[in-house]
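Structure in, sequence out. Go:
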């Protein structure tokens, strides 16, 4: 049994298999805060079930619940739903279907047990995490955010809101959810009687964030039900106004879903309009940044001249230098670095 509980195939082989596959797949996400007494035992049980129907993706389990982003063979989607409904923890769980989907979102199945399903830095003994804000559907969200005293808060990281956000949203300059919670609370400290509407990608961060804000004494806290993904699906089906501008960042191989044609961000290298997130080709760096097609060609998909020159070295030279050099990805957080600076060149003998 243990042989099927972890992937044993080389990463590069798996990526090539994914890219070459013609199988139709559906990308989706889900979460639920629910008490799981033994997440380690449940992890192996769930892995066995999902692997049997060729599910790929990333799932986190904890005593507090489950958080997953996966892709399922489209022809087996109903089978997948039936199998989830056979598990008490997951019965009738909402599935957020991806907005833009080429079926190439994940290349392997990974299920991990963690302390939290989203790292928040909080002790749940401090407050009741089940007392979250009032959930709003797309129609209710549009109506409430039209009111002048409503504050819309993006609970995502800066590199997510950089490429897409709701109109007039507060977008904290943070790199993690752990940073976002105290930052937002401090910014809004004197706004405790105003309408506070929180949103994130699929809803999971706002479940915890809205409960935290209520615990701090904010009186009118709301959250976008199902996040940006469900909002987009609803506005399309209902034909109502879209208040989201730009692209929705996603944590898989796609790195983004286009929701509106407006591009609100710029290439980190040349400053021209672009919302194309990539990882630096230099694996010793691998920083996430925004790069337009022109700069991708000019710098061979690298974030800097330093990384470009390193990539041009042979394997032996790379091996000799890799632990001696500092790249953007080893000194800056995602999307925060000095691109193409004066001292950004390797000195090659």
């Amino acid at each position: 049994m243990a042989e099927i509980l972890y992937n044993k195939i080389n990463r590069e082989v798996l990526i090539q298999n994914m890219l070459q596959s013609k199988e139709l797949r559906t990308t989706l996400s889900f979460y639920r805060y629910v008490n799981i007494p033994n997440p380690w035992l449940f992890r192996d049980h769930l892995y066995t079930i999902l692997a049997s129907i060729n599910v790929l993706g990333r799932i986190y389990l904890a005593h507090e619940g489950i958080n997953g982003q996966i892709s399922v063979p489209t022809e087996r989607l109903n089978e997948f739903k039936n199998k989830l409904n056979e598990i008490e923890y997951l019965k009738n769980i909402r599935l957020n279907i991806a907005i833009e989907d080429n079926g190439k979102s994940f290349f392997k199945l990974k299920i991990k047990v963690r302390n939290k399903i989203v790292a928040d830095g909080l002790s749940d003994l401090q407050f009741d995490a089940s007392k979250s804000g009032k959930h709003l559907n797309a129609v209710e969200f549009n109506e409430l955010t039209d009111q002048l005293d409503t504050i819309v808060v993006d609970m995502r990281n800066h590199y997510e809101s950089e490429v897409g956000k709701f109109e007039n949203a507060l977008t904290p300059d943070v790199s993690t959810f752990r940073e976002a919670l105290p930052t937002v609370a401090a910014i809004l400290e004197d706004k405790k009687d105003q309408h506070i509407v929180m949103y994130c990608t699929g809803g999971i961060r706002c479940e915890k964030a809205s409960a935290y804000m209520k615990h701090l004494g904010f009186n009118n806290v709301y959250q976008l039900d199902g996040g940006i993904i469900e909002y987009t699906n609803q506005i399309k089906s209902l034909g109502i106004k879209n208040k989201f501008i730009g692209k929705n960042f996603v944590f898989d191989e796609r790195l983004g879903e286009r929701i509106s044609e407006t591009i609100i961000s710029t290439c980190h290298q040349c400053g021209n309009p672009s919302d194309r997130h990539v990882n630096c080709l230099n694996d010793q760096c691998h920083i996430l940044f925004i790069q337009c097609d022109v700069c991708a060609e000019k710098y061979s998909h690298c974030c800097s001249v330093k990384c470009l020159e390193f990539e041009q070295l042979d394997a032996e030279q790379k091996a000799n230098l890799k632990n001696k050099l500092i790249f953007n990805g080893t000194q800056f957080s995602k999307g925060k670095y000095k691109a193409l600076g004066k001292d950004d060149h390797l000195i090659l003998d």
